[in-house]
């Protein structure tokens, strides 16, 4: 039978994975919109295509890479802090009830 710690770790993995998926989707949309406003062109759909200039492909890759990583770090840390606070509150309530 799984211990309480293992259950909490599994719960955090599920929450962290969901936060990661939602964050990646949202950041891709926001950065794509910002790219279009800044350059006046749609983001390159296929950076490997020779129709996309090398500078544009590299620029888009850098913007997306840095933007995605920063967003993932911020969201994961925020979600972890909230999860830890919720778990501490739950444990405190359990101690009071017993």
Automatic annotation (TrEMBL):
Domain of life: Bacteria
Listed Pfam families: DUF4235
TM spans (from-to): 12-34, 54-74
This protein's UniProt keywords: Membrane, Transmembrane, Transmembrane helix
Protein name: DUF4235 domain-containing protein
InterPro entries: DUF4235
